[in-house]
Specification:
One of its GO terms (biological process) is nuclear-transcribed mRNA catabolic process, nonsense-mediated decay. This protein is α+β, with helices and mostly antiparallel strands. The chain has 12 helices and 22 strands. It is 20% helix and 28% strand. Helix 8 runs parallel beside helix 10. The structure holds guanosine-5'-diphosphate.
């Protein structure tokens, strides 16, 4: 009986943690601005570019004072799909886990207990990659290896899966969240689970691999600090996932855009008979994917490749058995991520939490990741962009009730003073005296990644920015930016096409929360999607109105 209760507890945990990351507005209301002449509004030269829209190469690598650590630096500024990125550190060798791992120290410091700060560092990890690469299997296996899901619960999942003759799916079930998903055998929503290592508390944002679920994936990636790209080494599967149409590329790109600092590439299914832990196949996968990741702007020091088997758990916790894999000398995945350098988040900034989802439960409960600052029980906050005054009634961090929450934590907050209907995903819960900026029209630097024709003023797409999805229209093209030199064109372009970088003025269909990228990267980077494809990525340079 005790066991049943345990199972029930875990089951309900998964169901309440289940988040539909991005909600789409079914039909967008096209707003007709009073006919203001766009040309006039951007007449003054230099058009509308802010005084220093593009960081200079001299700044490369230096974190500007007060700037959050995961800035989109110069390499990323000239992020190009074809990769002719001058600043790329081509010479740098990408580390296998073996070399990248910080030197293990034998002396462990006792945990520092500070007032309100005795918690482990919170890190959000998103598993990305093509469908069937093994993301759910690995997630489930990690939960089991860290003692978060007991063997019996996993066995129950396994039994249920067998009954439906889907025996190899059993670990996936630990992450899949509802019956419908289980029946389909697919992880549809960005499910959540968490596990703890010695020094850190990890929340898993398990991203689905289906094409139509890429928008959900964006929600997951927007919250992640660490991305784990799972690729299948099985013969034929790696190739399918990486070719055009496969999702390996798009997911990696979204992870980069969303600002994840570190990317671990797990070369999975090494146990498969077509692979058999062979170094040649591992290197083949790694060598094919590496140039693409570098093109996206991932620096060698932020990339780690590791061979694993999600199904057997090999390489996840303990180092890999030398008999199986004599050529790999790195640590297991879990100790590796436990030892990654701390994110050094700021707790002293104003409180900012983009809302991923909400529901009604004797009050209005909002969910999301705290991007900066702290919030306490009883505190007054604002829900932007509507400036609704609210008070914090109850707080949970990864399902555990707490009295305060801080940066990086995945939280649920029950609010007083607002109806559930008056909150939408993409709204932002903020400090009452220092709320996030809002706006409808802004200038942005945009990289066109993939688009079959040209983009002119009047072009519409869906913008994904933090947790918000909003229809936007390009009001005007301001200038082109040379990818290599960063020079801006003197004349205003009539159109912009694939592989080009442009500064443009963008209008949203409604008021949204956003911030200049250089002041707050998490709130100032976005993707543009059209016909279910990510066509461009961009950063906010200046909010106009
Ligand atoms: P996801 O779509 O990326 O979440 O992939 P799943 O975790 O659902 O796994 C897809 C399929 O690959 C399932 O049939 C798994 O049993 C299988 N699989 C996952 N990891 C491994 C592995 O390490 N080795 C082998 N041989 N099969 C695996």
């Amino acid at each position: 009986m005790e066991n049943d209760q345990e199972i029930h507890k875990i089951g309900s945990q998964f169901s309440t943690l289940n988040v539909n990351a991005v909600e789409f507005v079914p039909s967008f209301v096209v707003s007709h601005q009073p006919q203001k002449d766009i040309e006039n509004s951007i007449e003054d030269p230099p058009p509308t570019a802010p005084s220093k829209p593009i960081e200079t190469p001299e700044n490369n690598g230096n974190v500007v004072e007060n700037e959050p650590l995961d800035t989109w630096d110069e390499e990323e500024t000239i992020l190009t799909p074809d990769g002719d990125n001058e600043n790329e550190e081509e010479e740098m060798e990408v580390e296998d886990g073996s070399d990248a791992l910080p030197k293990p120290s034998t002396k462990r410091k006792p945990p520092k207990v500070e007032e309100n700060c005795s918690k482990k560092e919170h890190v959000n990890v998103v598993f990305i990659g093509h469908v069937d690469a093994g993301k759910s299997t690995i997630g489930g296996q990690i939960m089991s290896l860290t003692g978060m899901v007991d063997k019996r619960t996993l066995e129950k999942y396994e039994r249920e899966a067998r009954e439906k003759s889907r025996e190899s799916w059993y670990l996936s079930w630990a992450l899949d969240t509802n019956q419908e998903e289980r029946d389909k055998g697919k992880t549809v929503e960005v499910g959540r689970a968490y596990f703890e290592t010695e020094k850190k508390h990890f929340t898993i944002l398990d991203a689905p691999g289906h094409k139509s679920f890429v928008p959900n994936m964006i929600g997951g990636a927007a919250q992640a600090d660490l991305a784990v790209l799972v690729i299948s080494a099985r013969k034929g599967e790696f190739e399918t996932g990486f070719d055009r149409g496969g999702q390996t590329r798009e997911h990696a790109m979204l992870a980069k855009t969303a600002g994840v600092k570190h990317l671990v590439v797990l070369v999975n299914k090494m146990d498969d008979p077509t692979v058999n832990w062979e170094e040649v196949r591992y290197n083949e996968c790694k060598d094919k994917i590496l140039p693409y990741l570098k093109k996206l702007g991932f620096k060698a020091k932020d990339l780690t490749f590791m061979p694993v088997s999600g199904i057997t758990g090999m390489g996840l916790k303990e180092p890999i058995d030398k008999n199986l894999c004599p050529w790999y000398d790195g640590p297991g995945f879990i100790p590796f991520i436990d030892d990654l350098p701390s994110l050094n988040r700021k707790t002293d900034g104003p409180f900012i939490m983009p809302i991923v989802d909400k529901y009604k439960d004797m009050g209005t409960v909002v969910m999301g990741k705290v991007e900066s600052g702290m919030a306490k029980k009883g505190q007054n906050l604002l829900v932007m962009p509507n400036r609704t005054q609210v008070a914090v009634d109850q707080l949970w961090s990864d399902e555990e009730e707490v009295t305060s929450v801080g940066p990086g934590e995945n939280v649920k907050i029950k609010l007083k003073g607002i109806e559930e209907e008056d909150v939408s995903p993409g709204f932002v819960l903020c400090d009452a005296s220092n709320p996030i900026k809002t706006g409808k029209i802004f200038d942005a630097q945009v990289v066109i990644l993939e688009h079959k024709s040209i983009i002119c003023a009047g072009y519409s797409a869906v913008m994904h920015i933090h947790c918000a999805a909003e229809e936007v229209t390009v009001k005007a093209l301001i200038c082109l930016v040379d990818k290599k030199s960063g020079d801006k064109s003197k004349t205003r372009p009539r159109f912009v096409k694939q592989d080009q970088v442009a500064i443009m003025r963008i209008e949203c269909s409604g008021m949204i929360c956003l911030e200049q990228f250089k002041l707050f990267p998490q709130m100032g980077r976005f993707t543009l999607r059209d016909e279910n494809k990510t066509i461009a990525i961009g950063k906010v340079l200046k909010v106009i109105e």
